[in-house]
Amino acid sequence: MSAPTPYAALADDLRAPVQAAHQDYLSRRYFSSLNGLRCLCIAAVMWHHSPFANPEGGPRILSRGFVGVDFFFVLSGFLITTLLLREESRTGRIAVGAFYGRRALRILPVYLLLVTLLAIYWIAVKGQSDIAKLPYYYLFLANFLKEHIPLLSVTWSLSVEEQFYFLWPALLVLLPAAARFRTGLLITLTVICLLISLGLADWLGLPRIETEQAIFKLPGASYMAVLWGALTAVLLHQRTGYSWLMAVTGWRGAPLVFFLMLALYLQLSPPMLVGWAALGMDVLMALCLISIVIREDHVLRPVLTFAPVARVGEVSYGIYLYHLIGLHIAHEIGRRVLPDPSQGLWLVTLLFVVISIAMAEVSFRTYERFFLSLKGRMSKTAVAERA
What we know:
Helices cover 70% and strands 1% of the residues. By secondary structure, the protein is mainly alpha-helical. β1 and β2 form a beta hairpin. It is globular. The model is unreliable at 6-14 and 381-387 (pLDDT under 50).
């Protein structure tokens, strides 16, 4: 047998660090910066609903706090797909039933409590005739509603995510496991979503059903963000994809550069973030995400792992669901204690933030903790599953 050539030996030497880094990535049980990223996402959403959002004549980026939801979508698609792929690698199969059980214990208790209490308040107490909308919330179809029950408008994004959670694990089980096939499928679905967001749903022959309460159609941009997160997970799970992404995002300063690029993009991109504009945003968000999970010692780690920042991220699900209630209470307090509420917007905003975080913290430490303990007993997962 002939000795390896110098070029082959050099190639092996170059591949060895990437292989070791990939094994470290696959064995990592926890991505330390993701709670910090969740904090950034929920801060953007709260800014979007604050009294200071959409300043007239201000920088465009200040009117785009809503993209925090898109970043949540990318993050969710990544985490869920990573969890499923690692379970498959570890056990040789994906236990779809157990996955649905864990997701139900994480998502449903707070969600169903919120929907039920607010529905009782607005329908039974306030006398609004919105009872026909309730099935859309309970069945996670709120993203199709024409109008929402007050303070429940944010639940549209939960519907998008739950629809993804319902379909994607089943697809992974039923379809071939080859990484190239899964990558191709995700790219195909992303292209379809792009075409829909460009207004080509009629050209694709997709149905549109309208009822008194809702319009059933496929909203391309929302699903496109989740698919980009899933594609990110598939690429990072395989060694070839990981090596490509390592070359682009695997240097310590990469997160700072990509987050600045995203901020610049949000400032300079067109007023409507649909079609190609949405695609560009999703790609940059995916690169930001990759840059903070592909290595732990990145330059933004001290910020994203700072204890208060990480804690806000940890309870961000509750903040997201409760923050419109917090805003409502803050406005009511401002209206009662301030002679001119328009002159006390900073106080209202401060109250809004404090009340929202406090509600989420109390909920997490009491009501949610019981269900999270049940979820923990169901599975010892390799990745924190909360998305």
